[in-house]
Amino acid sequence: MRHGKKFNHLSRKAPHRKSMLSNMASSLIIHKKIETTVAKAKALRKYIEPILTRSKNDTTHSRRTVFSLLNNKESVTELFNNVSEKIASRPGGYTRIIKTGFRLGDNAEMCVIELVDYNTLLLGGDDKASAPKTRRRRKKKSTANVAEETPKTQKVAPKKEEKKAKKDKDDKKSK
Q1: What's the CA gap between 131 and 117, in Å, rounded?
Q2: What's the distance, CA 87 to chain centroid?
Q3: Among 78, 92, 147, 155, which residue's beta carbon has the most beta carbons within 10 A?
Q4: CB of 53 within 8 A of CB of 92?
C-alpha cells in the first residue's frame, strides 16, 4: 500500500537522492537539456520548479537559498543572470519532459527534460530553421513551369543541329 508515500525515493538513501537531484538540476540549468530516465525526470521536475520560481526574485536571500539546494556557483549565476530573465513572464511550467524510448541495457524508459523557453526548434529562433528550404521533387512540373521552359528547349535544338553539321564537315575532310 502507498499510504502517505509523497514522492519517489528512486531506490536511494536520502543523501544520495539529494545530491543526485542537485547535480541534475545544475546540469539542466547549465546545459538547458539533459537526457535521463522518466522517473528521475519527474522527480527532478518537482525539485527544480520551485528553484526556478525563486530565481525570479533576485535578492541575496533567494540566491543563498538556491545555492544551498544546488551547491554550484556557476549554475546559480547562470540561473539568476540568464534563465530568470527568460522565465520572468511565465507563471509556471518551466520544464518539458519528452519521452524518447527505452534504454538498451535495462529497458528503462528514457526521456529528455529541457527548459521550455530554451527549445530553439519549437520557438523558431534558430537561423537554420527559419531559412527557406528547397525541396527535391519527383513530381511532374506544373503547366506554368512547362510553358516557361519550352523556349529553352527550342534554343537547345539548333545547337544540336549545328554540332551535327560540324561533325559531318569534319568527316568529309578526313575522307
Answers
A1: 21
A2: 18
A3: 78
A4: yes
Report the C-alpha gap between 119 and 96 in whole angstroms.
10
d(CA 75, CA 34): 14
Reduce the DSSP state of residue 113 to 3 states and report it.
strand
Is 117 within 8 Å of 87 (Cβ atoms)? Answer: yes
90: domain CATH number? 3.90.1030.10
The pTM of the full predicted model, rounded to 2 decimals, is 0.68
Compute the distance between CA of residue 77 and CA of residue 144 in angstroms, rounded to an integer: 59
Does residue 175 form part of some domain?
no
Domain with 113 in it: 14-124
Q: What tens digit of pLDDT does each residue of 126-166 get?
A: 455 455 666 676 766 666 555 555 555 455 555 656 666 76
